[in-house]
Structures are given as structure tokens and as C-alpha cells.
Write a structure and sequence with these properties.
Blueprint lengths: L12 H13 L12 E5 L2 E4 L4 E4 L2 H4 L8 H13 L11 H13 L6 E6 L2 H16 L3 E5 L8 H6 L4 H4 L9 E4 L19 H14 L5 E6 L15 H12 L2 E5 L23 E4 L10 E6 L18 H39 L3 E7 L2 E6 L10 H13 L2 E2 L1 E3 L3 E4 L7 H18 L2
Parallel strand pairs: 3-13, 5-6, 5-7, 7-8, 8-9
Antiparallel strand pairs: 1-2, 2-3, 4-10, 9-10, 11-12, 12-15, 14-15
Helix pairs in contact: 3-10, 4-10, 10-12, 11-12
Length: 441
């Protein structure tokens, strides 16, 4: 399948018909971005029901790490499906689950021994971490960051603070969650400049939060995305994560890294924490772990994984077919895809960076590996986020055969499957630049 190739301006007639049916019975809560109706996916390419071929730079929101329906992943799924589809891993044993927990406990950053709890999704991994943090520390308060996204179930939603609309009318949420500003240097919450700021955004925790709002002895955990995802692909300054870890160590607080979006090679290393040499106490993962089958994991240091049998569980978490898909996915990542993410990511980011001179609407290009964000702003002297332009560019890219997504207020995220080639990123840059040229004034 050679993409992009647009036969009929999307949405074509078949897509329109399915969308109309969808609107009759599907919950209106889903916030569809543009009218793409998928028929098939192979590698980097998505075919819609009208025969249009798109280059996929969304990877199903950072999920299909090995590309769509990678033959080795499909084979592993088929082999396991022929043996058995399900047998509750919370109550009984099967080897694919053990093989995966062995693998994940070895892969997680840092030298400590680890224990793994398997879930079906990212939000469930966060819920598990939230519960374990309270259970093992016997403390109730937690700290999370403005701009963060940790999921939508009520525990995770209490941590999530990327858009207030996610939280509106769902309260009361879990009490004793303290939100503080994230290390977003491009729009520093303290109006300081990196280099002379003393990393005020981290110092705030001890200087202000622990002094005025909560004593550290009552704080169970700090939840942090090493790079904020939904919040705008925000890469904090290099010393950031290490400084937070130091604070945690000084006060017996658990550092919980939410690598649901950054994990499994996305940033050019298996886990983003590795860029800064930080071992979290708990690592939460999902998305790219199983190439699209629903799976997540909460990987905790063994010494804090103190919960006793029956304290937590899940009917489907660690489903054998999903475990088989994860093992095949991890083998492919270790076999070259993480390296590809680093190499192609560097090339891709350089090319996007070069657009800055020709297109002043681009206010920032940031990211690591194949997790790259391009922020768009108005040229009004105040760099006001231009969400309207961002949305128009995404829509035009779709019409021209490139699938993109937004994040933050006015950022476009580029998160292709980790199999992407340099020439495919060049095509993406061309389509993106053409849309900007046409729409940015
Ligand atoms: N954490 C992060 C960083 C995420 O990006 C997401 C989803 O986008 C989640 C948690 C929630 O994951 P899920 O949608 O699988 O529940």
C-alpha cells in the first residue's frame, strides 16, 4: 500500500454512511478529531472505507508501536488464541503472564527488584499505583502536575489536570491531590528563564507546597509524566526528574512515573526515565506495550509491593492473548525499533526545526525520539497559543493523506509507529509545511 493516496475527498460516501450510523447509537462523549473511518491498517498505512490511503503519524495515539498488524505480533496472537483466550490471571496461573512479568521486571529502569501488576489500560495502571502508594506508605496525600493526563477513571481523573473540561461535573474527585505547575520552559509558569531560574518549578514543592499546604510526612507519592503527553508534549529541563526524585527520597515519598505514553521505545529509549538516569519507585505503562491489544502494567519496587493476596485484582488484566502480543512487541522493540525511534526521531526533529525560520507560526519544536510536538502561536508579540490554526492544519493534513493529532492548547503531535523511515518523515514534513503555508497568515 503506497501512501498517501487520496481517491475521494474524505469523508467519502461510505465513511459518511458509517459516521451517520455511529451518531445514532454511540455515546456522544467521544471527541472525534476528524471523520476518518478505518478499514484496514498495514505498517505505516491506514486505508479508509472509501479506499483512501493515509500515512499514520498518530499510531492510534502512541499505541501501534510496531506498525499496524505487524506479522510477528499477529502470529503470536493467533498462536495464543488457538490455545486459550482467557483464564483469569488474578485467580490462576498461565505461562504467558509469567513470561511477561519476568520480562517487564527486568526491563524497568533501575537496579531494584520489581513486582508487576497487569491491567487492561493506562488508567487502570495509574489506579493500581494510587492504591499501592496509599497502602504501602499509609499516607493519603499525593502531588500531581497541572497539564498532566493520567486517565479518566475517577482516581486517575483526580490526578489529571490537562483540561478542566475533563473534570467538569464529575466531582467530588478524590481529596488530598495537590496540583503544581510543570517544568514548561517555553511558557514558564513563573516567567523565569531556564539557566537562571534555579528550577523554581521543582523548588516550589518544598518552598511553598510543603510549607503552606501539606506536610511531606502525609504525602504518599508524586505522580509525574517524564514528558507531558496530552498536556502538550512538554519536555522538562534535564535536571527536573532527578530533582523530584531527590525530594521524594528526602521525605519517604514514592516517585510514580507515568510512562503510559512515553514508554516502550517512543522517546528513543525503552523508557523516558532512562534519559535522565532516574529509577522511579513505581512505573506505569500501557499504550505501546502490546501493539494495540489492551494491556497495561504497574511495575513497583518489590519492597513497596507489600499488598497481600486479594487486595487488588482484575478479571481481564494480563489476558493471555494480550501478553503474547506484548512479548512479540517487546522482542521487535529490542531487535531494532527503539534504535530506529532514536535515529529517525533525530532526523525528523531536525527537519521540523528547520521549518521554524520559514513559518513564524511555529513557536516551539520539542520532543525526544518519535514523540515530537510542534507548538503553534499567534505572532502578536505575546505568543498566544493558536489552537484554531492547529486544528485547521490537522484537518488539512488529513485531507491530504497525513494523520496527525493535537495536544496541549495549540500543539501538533507527531507520534508515528516506531517502524517509520526517514523518507516517510520527510513526506510528513512536506504535507505539514504545505498546510501551514496555506493556512498560516
Ligand atoms: N497516562 C498517560 C500519560 C496517558 O497519555 C494516558 C492516555 O492517553 C493515560 C494515562 C490513560 O491511558 P488509557 O487511555 O489507556 O486509560
Amino acid at each position: 500500500m503506497k501512501a498517501p493516496h487520496i481517491k475521494t475527498k474524505p469523508p467519502g460516501p461510505k465513511a459518511k454512511e458509517i459516521i451517520e450510523r455511529d451518531q445514532r447509537t454511540t455515546a456522544p462523549a467521544y471527541g472525534r478529531v476528524y471523520p476518518l473511518v478505518v478499514k484496514e491498517g498495514r505498517g505505516m498505512v491506514i486505508e479508509d472505507v472509501d479506499g483512501n490511503l493515509f500515512l499514520d503519524f498518530t499510531a492510534g495515539i502512541a499505541v501501534t508501536s510496531t506498525g499496524h498488524s505487524h506479522p510477528q505480533v499477529v502470529r503470536a496472537i493467533e498462536e495464543q488464541a488457538r490455545k486459550f483466550l482467557h483464564f483469569c490471571g488474578s485467580d490462576f496461573y498461565y505461562e504467558p503472564m509469567v513470561r511477561l512479568t519476568e520480562k517487564l521486571s527486568r526491563m524497568a529502569p533501575g537496579p531494584s527488584a520489581k513486582k508487576v501488576f497487569l491491567t487492561n489500560s493506562g488508567t487502570e495502571a495509574i489506579e493500581a499505583a494510587f492504591k499501592l502508594a496509599r497502602y504501602s506508605t499509609k499516607r493519603q496525600h499525593v502531588v500531581a502536575f497541572l497539564g498532566s493526563f493520567h486517565g479518566r477513571t475517577l482516581g486517575s481523573l483526580s490526578l489529571t489536570a490537562s483540561r478542566s473540561s475533563h473534570r467538569a461535573h464529575f466531582g467530588p474527585l478524590i481529596p488530598n491531590v495537590h496540583h503544581i505547575a510543570f517544568g514548561y520552559c517555553h511558557r514558564c509558569p513563573y516567567n523565569l528563564t531556564y539557566g537562571s531560574c534555579g528550577i523554581e518549578c521543582v523548588r516550589y514543592i518544598e518552598k511553598v507546597l510543603f510549607r503552606h499546604e501539606v506536610v511531606p510526612e502525609e504525602v504518599a507519592a508524586i505522580f509525574v509524566e517524564p514528558i507531558q503527553g496530552e498536556g502538550g508534549f512538554v519536555v522538562p529541563p534535564p535536571e527536573y526528574l532527578g530533582m523530584i526524585k531527590d525530594i521524594c527520597q528526602r521525605h519517604g515519598i514514592l516517585l510514580i512515573a507515568d510512562e503510559v505514553q512515553t514508554g516502550f521505545g517512543r522517546t528513543g529509549k525503552m523508557f523516558a526515565c532512562e534519559h535522565w538516569g532516574v529509577e522511579p519507585d513505581i512505573l506505569c505503562v500501557a499504550k505501546g506495550i502490546a501493539s494495540g491489544l489492551p494491556l497495561g502494567a504497574m511495575i513497583a519496587r518489590s519492597d513497596i509491593s507489600t499488598w497481600t493476596p486479594g487486595t487488588h485484582g482484575s478479571t481481564f488484566g494480563g489476558n493471555p492473548v494480550a501478553c503474547a502480543a506484548a512479548l512479540a512487541t517487546i522482542a521487535l522493540l529490542e531487535d531494532g525499533l527503539v534504535k530506529n525511534a532514536a535515529e529517525v526521531g533525530t532526523h525528523f526533529k531536525e527537519r521540523l526545526d528547520r521549518l521554524k525560520t520559514a513559518y513564524p507560526a511555529i513557536s516551539d519544536v520539542r520532543g525526544l525520539g518519535l514523540m515530537i510536538g510542534v507548538e503553534l502561536a499567534k505572532q502578536d508579540g505575546a505568543r498566544t497559543p493558536d489552537s484554531e490554526l492547529r486544528n485547521q492544519v490537522i484537518r488539512r493534513a488529513f485531507e491530504n493523506g497525513l494523520l496527525l493529532l493535537g495536544c496541549g492548547e495549540s500543539t501538533i503531535r507527531f507520534i508515528p509507529p516506531l517502524i517509520v523511515s526517514k523518507s516517510e518523515t520527510d513526506i510528513a514534513v512536506e504535507i505539514f509545511a504545505a498546510a501551514l503555508k496555506e493556512l498560516a497568515h
